Amino acid sequence: MKEPFVITVGRQFGSGGRELGKALADSLGIAYYDKELLVESAKLAGVNPEFFKKKDERFPTFLQGLFSFSMGVTPMCYYTGASSITDDGLYKSISDFLLHTATEKSFVVVGRSSDYILREHPRCVNLFIHAPMHECVRRIMDRNDAIDEAKAEAMARKTNKWRADYYNFFTDKTWGDAKSYDLTIDSSHLPMEKNVELVKAYLRLRGFIE
Questions:
Q1: Three-state SS letters, the chain
Q2: What are the φ/ψ torsions at residue 97 (nearest 5 degrees)?
Q3: CB 122, CB 102: distance < 8 Å
Q4: Which of 47, 122, 129, 144 is the most buried (most CB within 10 A)?
């Protein structure tokens, strides 16, 4: 058996990153964590999972509700081990769960700055999935036919800002910057199954799969 590996998936809202992550996990026969990650981390912290869901990947609301901080803090200060949910309990619980699970099995994880949390893992591939705004809007509208084009675009821009602010605060990298990832993929160029095959080809070249 090969050593466990991890695929992290950063994504623009509406780009299909979640769909790609789930399809990759299914194709590879490995675990998948997205919303499930919040439930497992909540168990670890002894907190109601609904609390985690309300705070998921959000800044500054997330910080205003959980932190007391001053200018000049560094991302690393949130790995210092504070156990109280009033400090960095949410982020630390997610970190602890991912770091522990990565030693036991292979999995795909979507979002939550997981690429930074697992930055020391020797067998980790970090993806960022993006698409032109009109493609993201189309996908959002396909998921919810009650949303019009203007609302879908506003939702995408707002969610992307939340994710970027969250990621940029907790890491020393820039959300969506190609330098922060191993592969950045415009999901609009290929059908989703072909995007899956593209990532699998990369994994084979890296020696992670046969």
A1: CCCCCEEEEEECCCCCHHHHHHHHHHHHCCEEECHHHHHHHHHHHCCCHHHHHHHCCCCCHHHHHHCCCCCCCCHHHHHCCCCCCCCCHHHHHHHHHHHHHCCCCCEEEECCCHHHHCCCCCCEEEEEEECCHHHHHHHHHHHCCCCCHHHHHHHHHHHHHHHHHHHHHHCCCCCCCHHHCCEEEECCCCCHHHHHHHHHHHHHHCCCCC
A2: -65, -45
A3: no
A4: 129
CB 69 within 8 A of CB 84: no
Specify the fold of 6-205: Rossmann fold (3.40.50)
pTM for the model: 0.80
What tokens appear for 22 in the block?
Answer: 């789930």
Q: What is the pLDDT along the chain (210 residues), one digit of tens a residue?
A: 579 999 999 999 999 999 999 999 999 999 999 876 666 666 666 656 565 555 554 444 444 433 333 333 333 333 333 333 433 567 777 888 899 999 999 999 998 899 999 999 999 999 999 999 999 999 999 998 889 999 999 999 999 998 998 899 888 899 999 999 999 999 999 999 999 999 999 999 999 999
State the Cα–Cα distance between residues 201 and 210, nearest whole angstrom.
10
What does the domain layout of the chain look like in residue ranges? Answer: 6-205
Q: Whole-angstrom Cα distance, residue 70 to residue 50?
A: 28
